[in-house]
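Working notes for the structural subgroup meeting. M.R. asked for a predicted model of this chain before we commit to crystallization trials. I am recording the input and output together here so anyone reviewing the notebook later can reproduce the run.

Input as submitted:
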Amino acid sequence: MKVSVSVLSNEIKPQDIVKKLDLSKPDYIHIDIMDGKFVSNKTWTTSEVKKFTSYSTLPLEVHLMVNNPSKYIEDYALMNTSIIIFHYEAVKDINEMINKVKLYGLKVGIAINPETNIYVLIPYLNMIDEVLIMSVHPGKSGQSFIEESLEKISVLKNIILEGNYKTIISVDGGINNETGLLCKDAGADELVSASYIHKDIINNIKTLKNI
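Returned structure, recorded in token form:
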């Protein structure tokens, strides 16, 4: 199982989390960018992200929870970013946004909120690398997993297999060893976790990777 570690925490500084990540080798550092508009919270500036991610060689998975994601692409393309994920709900022209990210040679992901129907993504599956299913309402760490997300994962997995798409399914929100296993069984390829991993960074990353 792929594991992406969110460094969003109310208790631990992001640099203190990042410094430990190379010891346990997750697949990505998951960077949640919030603008205080698409979601009520606000996170880091690009200069702050550049500073604390400098403590690791791991690639970044940048999750843009913002109203205008296109203005962030260039700044994060200049970092060690592998994939940029934007929200379906925040973009009017999905095709244009996908192409903008690809112009920088980056992978593209689309995130959907819990209330968004999975079928809206079908037209884009042949163009994107990842779907990020939010299993909590975006904007705050430590929320409980929404179990209806499992049905979304399962339905999307079947669509991907039937269409022979290469898109992977990632799940973000309320992920721990128990919900992570449920997600895997439903068809998930990657787990994004914050508060569960932060309790024991090295061991809990290993636990999720070995699910």
